[in-house]
Design a protein that fits this description.
The chain is built from two helices and six strands. Strand 1, helix 1 and strand 2 form a beta-alpha-beta unit. Helix content is 25%, strand content 25%.
């Protein structure tokens, strides 16, 4: 159930068409989870300023049931920043926030992942 949310000031027209598909596959591989559970949301055209500048920047939230931790987060950050570079967002112009959540806190298919 990994969820990646990207909030960026990049214009929607400047986001490569296959961006989400490519990243979905890579996240599934990195997390060791089926791609059918990967959810990516990109919210472009946001009024975001980073470091006093409105140059391309982003705030990224990565939520998952497990598969997050010190080394995993470092590897995921590399994958995410490489993907964001395709939108011309530099690695030092974004934050990636990681949240490891409990199975019972995610509903899916009429139940939760705890059942």
């Amino acid at each position: 159930m990994p969820i990646l949310q990207v909030f960026t000031n990049v214009k929607d027209a400047d986001i490569p068409q296959d961006w989400s598909c490519n990243l979905s596959s890579e996240l599934a591989k990195q997390l060791g989870k089926p791609e059918k559970f990967i959810c990516i949301s990109v919210v472009p055209n946001q009024m975001i300023m980073f470091g006093g500048s409105s140059d391309p920047c982003a705030m990224v939230n990565m939520t998952s049931i497990g598969k997050l931790g010190l080394e995993e987060n470092k590897n995921l950050t590399k994958v995410i920043t490489a993907a964001m570079a395709k939108m011309n967002v530099a690695a030092d112009r974004m934050y990636v926030l990681f949240r490891d959540i409990a199975r019972q806190d995610v509903g899916w298919n009429n139940t939760t992942f705890a059942s």
